[in-house]
């Protein structure tokens, strides 16, 4: 598959199993348009659910058999086909309640996968900070350098909602290419994923960096509406995505965007930030380390498919 070939998200198969005790399990499988890994042919298991360990074991065994028959050498999951969609299990939940748009799963599901021979392939983290006033003095120099290069930071324009999403997409498909298990996505599929957030978007929390009108970076944050669902006032916001084009000319722009969105959130009355779902090696995690503490850990699993 070419690095520029958009991924179609429909599953290649769906597995349903019931054990003799009445337990049920299901999952979707992908093996055609999937991420690539050197010397491997990946099979993806996603949309997983199970209500007993026996049903989980039977389903995973069946899924592995089907993936082997289609030439796969390594099964990974849970992942709904691509990292653009839901993936990972919560494996260290901590004490914090779930936040808006966070993946959720019963605590036993990862253990059932481990019992079937799955091991950690990648780890992810979410962090939180109660201090939105901390300033990195180096950002003053970064801000001056970006201004001299013609880079300006502005809030999202809701009157051009879909056009703004397309600008964000143009940065994402370049910025995310080095990410683990990256696959391209059609632009319209990307826009469709974000369309449900239209009425919940707070424009001051979505910042675009542009150089002479062309997008070069962005930070996408949303209020934690899960607080409202629990009957609490919404005092936390979630940094969902931070992306900057590669190149020395944009060095420091990610930190500047993060600092700017913290300042904007503070001006709006937010008291707390969550930096969500970062891969253990991502640059965004390095930036977050200056602000925040880990509140949750997640795992993506894999298993060798023996022939």
């Amino acid at each position: 598959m070419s690095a520029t070939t958009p991924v179609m998200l429909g599953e290649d198969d769906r597995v349903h199993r019931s054990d003799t005790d009445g337990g049920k399990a299901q999952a979707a499988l992908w093996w055609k348009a999937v991420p690539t890994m050197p010397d491997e042919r990946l099979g993806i298991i996603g949309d997983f659910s199970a209500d007993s360990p026996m049903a989980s074991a039977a389903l995973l065994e069946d899924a592995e058999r089907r993936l082997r028959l289609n030439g796969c050498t390594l099964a990974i999951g849970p992942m709904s086909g691509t990292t653009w969609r839901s993936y990972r299990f919560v494996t260290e939940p901590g004490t914090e309640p779930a936040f808006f748009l966070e993946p959720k799963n019963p605590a036993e599901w990862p253990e059932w996968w481990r019992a079937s021979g799955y091991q950690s392939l990648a780890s992810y983290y979410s962090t939180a900070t109660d201090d939105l006033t901390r300033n990195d003095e180096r950002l003053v120099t970064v801000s001056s350098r970006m201004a001299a290069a013609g880079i300006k930071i502005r809030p999202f324009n809701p009157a051009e909602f879909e056009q703004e999403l397309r600008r964000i997409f143009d940065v994402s498909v370049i910025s995310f290419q080095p990410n683990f298990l990256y696959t391209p996505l059609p632009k319209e599929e990307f826009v469709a994923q974000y369309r449900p957030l239209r009425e919940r978007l707070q424009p001051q929390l979505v910042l675009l960096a542009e150089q002479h009108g062309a997008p070069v970076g962005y930070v996408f944050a949303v209020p934690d509406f899960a607080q409202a669902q629990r009957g609490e006032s919404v005092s936390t916001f979630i940094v969902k995505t931070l992306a900057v084009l590669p190149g020395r000319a944009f060095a420091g722009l990610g930190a500047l965007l993060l600092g700017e969105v913290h300042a904007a959130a503070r001006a709006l009355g937010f008291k707390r930030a969550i930096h969500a779902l970062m891969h253990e090696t991502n640059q965004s995690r390095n930036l977050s380390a200056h602000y925040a503490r880990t509140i949750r850990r997640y795992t993506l699993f894999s298993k060798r498919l023996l022939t």
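The mean pLDDT is 91. Residues 129-297 form a domain with the Aminopeptidase fold (CATH 3.40.630.30).
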